[in-house]
Design goal:
alpha+beta; two-stranded antiparallel sheet; Nucleotide-bd_a/b_plait_sf; RNA-binding; about 90 residues; 4-stranded antiparallel sheet; about 20% helix; RNA-binding protein; RBD_domain_sf; globular; RRM_dom
Length: about 90
């Protein structure tokens, strides 16, 4: 299961994120998303856990928890929406 974690402190790194979830079961990957230009954390990340039951337990217990003084939000990740390059202009001429 892919898990979305938001409202992370800007000092949280990939390994920190992994550590939050590893006590609930195997973690396939943990990644804090960073800004491409600055390399600074964007305050959210994704955790992949192969065992859905363990993932649901982690979501239930970690959602609303406090990390570095911030209440984190933990939910099942939704599929990424495709971006459309079609731009409509109301008045082209």
């Amino acid at each position: 299961m892919n898990i979305y974690v938001s409202n992370l402190s800007f000092i949280v790194r990939d390994e920190d994120l992994r550590e939050f979830f590893v006590e609930y079961g195997e973690v396939s990957s943990a990644r804090v998303i960073t800004d491409k230009a600055t390399g600074r954390s964007r305050g959210f990340g994704f955790v992949e856990m192969p065992d859905d039951e363990a993932a649901r337990k982690a979501i239930k217990e970690l959602d609303g928890g406090t990390v570095d003084g911030r209440a984190i939000k933990v939910t099942e990740a939704r599929p990424r929406e495709e971006k459309s390059n079609n731009r409509s202009y109301a008045n082209k001429w």
